[in-house]
Amino acid sequence: MNTLSRSFLTVIIIFLYFPILYLAYYSFNTGGSMTSFEGFTLDYYKSVIENKALMTVIMNTIAVALISSGFATIIGLFGAIFLYLIRQKYVKSTLLTLNNVLIVSPDVIIGASLLILFSIFGIKLGSTSVILAHIAFSVPIVVLMILPSLYQQNSNLVLAAHDLGASAFHVVTKVLIPNIKPGIFAGFLMALTYSLDDFAVTFFVTGNGFSTLSVEIYAMARRGITLEINAISTVIFVVVLTISFIYYFVSDKKIKRGKTT
Amino acid sequence: MKRVLALPYLLWMVVFVILPVFLMIYYSFNDMSGNLTLQNYAEFLSSNYIKMTLNSFWYAFLITVITLIVSYPLALVISRLKHKTFWLLIIIIPTWINILLKTYAFIGILGINGILNSVLEKFGLMKIQLLFSDFAFITVAVYIFIPFMVLPIFNSINGINKNLIWASYDLGASKWEALTKVIIPLSLEGVKSGIQITFIPALSLFMLSRLVAGNKVVTLGTAIEQQFLTNENWGMGSTVGVFLILFMVFVMLVTRTKKESI
């Protein structure tokens, strides 16, 4: 590890974190702008909490993420087990390709084509259309997260269960699903991440009256700078940072413990 | 059992994957009052749209190349660290901050009274309008894509059998030779997926061009958004969309990784 690579790593990390810390720094600025820091205040945090419209938007975002990830995990779990059970190679690879279409498609294409779809089926733009759209793009991600854990598990367990007289239903509910719980959880978390982070698809299918945090920030940013956005961003950053460090140290400890025993 | 499992999944596939693509193709042959026409295609092939498409490709190309130049060495450096998963996590954490928030931060940083300009001023240089330029567009796009590019490259470098690298040293390869003749060729799959993850979205970024490029950079994504949501000309928007899908398929075929073809 020479100095050149160490300084390169440092520069990139500063580049990646600078904008986030920059927002956080000015979220405490009494000056009301992101240009000169005049004094310390927590006013913007207070006004975020007191801003009822904004709190509704935050609640919407969380609700959409939880509901859509829940449905997507169920559909994706079924899909992954179905793909796992298919024997014909050609059918499997075709279905997998179709599965991946929405993962590689640009957001604008997903948004625009779903907008057409909803208008044809007469689904009113609003919470329903946003949740349906989020389920749509989360399912393939869940499938891809669950498939590897299905292949990693010992397939003899499934055969043994069959031999011992378990019905197909019991093989799935008593053997397969308990074995791949971590994969299912990872799929749900990934769907949650995609849903919380989505802007473009939601922007197309949200209509008037319903909005998620991304769409709201877009509207606020187009109007100009308000430090309330900085305050929200700082809160999100602290939450994300805490969760990821807890996750890292918990999983790190597990690995180390596994090594010693 | 298989049928019960298959039903919701296949239903999702038909309604949300297959049907939307066909609807988009069908709409691309429609004019604003719903009559069948080829006019949208004629318009797309006119000079304006071709120019915009080339422009969009050029920016996507620049963004991908710069992101790759930064990300490859970064992935290499991280793969040699002691706590590599920790440093990888540090690189990935910013992706969990909403993309809009990061873009918004750059509005403050690059603005005429922003921090970058005050640094320039201290060095006795003139203030320049950095925001609302193609420079801003590329910087923010590269910023957003770096972690996504690092991840697949890191995975493929990390997966290289270390014995191969040691063998090349034993056979007299210099550090540089080991890098160019062993490590880079063996990590090409990761580079390919990184390019896929960057190039296709870079063709269609629309909110970036609205927020930080001041509409100076028009991408295919901007055109689609404008046709659908501002002009309400879904036919023309779908036509641009059909071309974007074709370009996407082309990029996917060019950068197809070996794993997928098996």
Summary of the model, kept short:
The complex is a heterodimer of chains A (261) and B (262). Chain A has helices spanning 3-26, 43-50, 52-85, 89-104, 107-120, 127-152, 155-163, 168-179, 181-197, 200-205, 213-223, 227-260.
Helix content of chain B: over 70%
Mean pLDDT of chain B: 90
- The total of beta strands of chain A comes to 0
From the coordinates shown, what is the CATH architecture of one domain in chain B?
Orthogonal Bundle
The CATH homology group name of one domain in chain B = MetI-like
CATH superfamily of the largest domain in chain A: MetI-like
Report on this structure.
Chain B: Belongs to the binding-protein-dependent transport system permease family. CysTW subfamily. Chain B: InterPro entries: MetI-like, MetI-like_sf. Chain B: Keywords: Cell membrane, Membrane, Transmembrane, Transmembrane helix, Transport. The complex is a heterodimer of chains A (about 260) and B (about 260). Chain A is mainly α. Chain A folds into 2 domains: about 15-50, no CATH class; about 55-225, MetI-like (MetI-like fold). Helices cover about 80% and strands about 0% of the residues of chain A. Chain A is globular and about 75 Å long. The model of chain A has no long low-confidence stretch (mean pLDDT about 90). Chain B is mostly helical. Chain B has 14 helices and no strands. In chain B, helix 12 (about 220-230) packs antiparallel against helix 13. The longest helix of chain B is centred in the N-terminal third of the chain and has 33 residues, at about 45-80. The model of chain B has no long low-confidence stretch (mean pLDDT about 90). Classes of the chains: A mainly alpha (about 260), B mainly alpha (about 260). Chains A and B meet through helix 1, helix 3, helix 4, helix 5 and helix 6 of A and helix 1, helix 3, helix 4, helix 5 and helix 7 of B.
Structural topology:
The complex is a heterodimer of chains A (261) and B (262).
Chain A: H1 3-26, H2 43-50, H3 52-85, H4 89-104, H5 107-120, H6 127-152, H7 155-163, H8 168-179, H9 181-197, H10 200-205, H11 213-223, H12 227-260
Helix pairs in contact in A: 1-12, 2-12, 3-6, 3-9, 4-6, 6-9, 7-8
Chain B: H1 2-28, H2 39-44, H3 47-79, H4 84-92, H5 99-110, H6 115-122, H7 134-158, H8 162-170, H9 175-186, H10 188-204, H11 207-211, H12 220-230, H13 234-254, H14 258-261
